[in-house]
Fold:
Amino acid sequence: MNEELEKLILKLYTEKHSGKKFVPGKDMVRYAGRVFDQEELLKLVDASLDFWLTEGRFAEEFTEKIADYLDVSNVILTNSGSSSNLIAFSSLTSKKLGSRRLMPGDEVISVAAGFPATVTPIIQNGMVPVFVDVDLKTYNINIDMMKKAISSKTRAVFIAHTLGNPFAIDAVLDICREHDLWLIEDNCDAFGSTYRGKYTGTFGHVASFSFYPAHHITTGEGGAVVTDDEELARIIRSFRDWGRDCYCAGGENNTCGKRFSQQFGTLPYGYDHKYVYSEIGYNLKMTDMQAAIGSAQMDKIDQFCARRRENFAKYQTIFSRYGDYFILPEATPGSNPAWFSYIITVKENQRFNRDDIVKHLNEHLIETRYLFAGNIIRQPLFEGVTYRVAESLENTDYIMNNTFFLGTYPGITCEMMEYMEKVITDFMHRQGC
Structure:
């Protein structure tokens, strides 16, 4: 890219995207959003000028940065975090896994208090989700209930690190090892979180990531699947790339050296390997323009995560004054969450409920969200779906009725935080608290 074009892009960024001041009571305080500077624009324009469009040099660069950051051997980029969940789970149904493959009717441990995309791949593959309740404060799977939920049909565990707070990984891994279960980590809300000094998304057999604008870094739409298992990595790429058996990168041919000299199924001997399909797959690839943005975002991930932790700590200070009325969130022991948001639950009391404070916040232009689906089995999508509940979902139902969250993303400024503190304090004073 020439120097003149770079100057024009910097000018555009300065005029259109930088220097905006927050006006309390007039500007919305978003719970999430994209945070970027001229570097993302420069890379995006550079990629567009290549006009390669599908995966290319920027996808390779982005992949390498993620792999280096997490210290993993395989990163497969996708077009969304939901697609990452789909192929991460679907890869475990491959015939290439032999007796280890997941089959229709198998049971998979999950939680009902979360995002649908963690659960829907289980159903889409004809398996039975088994729902375990969560602990209040951490909002992650209850380990004692999880142990009791295991049956002779249980084959896998598919759970998320809720809103960036790692689940009790040591305990979950122990259960998986004891019962020979696959572990799929939904790390979409937890990029940059650590457990005992190691990044989440690197503990399970496979993990998913999301780069939607609400997440820790963004490519707009986009995601990734991560694994250190070379066999799984090849299967995952196949599911992502139409189900094809060939693993050549885009624009490459005959990487294996046997393109026209192999036998597959009942196809003619030597059938072109680029058109041999071994899985029932999809096309879920990322474009190079998205990857260019992601590459620039990766250079900022540590500072983004630091800001999320700082904003979480500020909320904790504000709400800790009202501990009689709220259940405050707690990090899982041994973890350092890169908090996706600040999640809080209203205790049962006679002064106000969740809807009262959420209404007050939104009336003052402060965005809130509930914990995604609440209790997913109460959602319309679960009508007619086969599932099993382990014991009860008492806490999940309580969360559905009493929990909400506020943003921690790096775009929340000190001025915004001061405004939110004032709005929250005013509400609590009006309640006589």
The CA atoms of residues 78 and 285 lie 5 Å apart. The radius of gyration is 23 Å. The first helix runs from residue 3 to 16. The chain has three domains: 42-248+278-298, 249-277, 301-430.
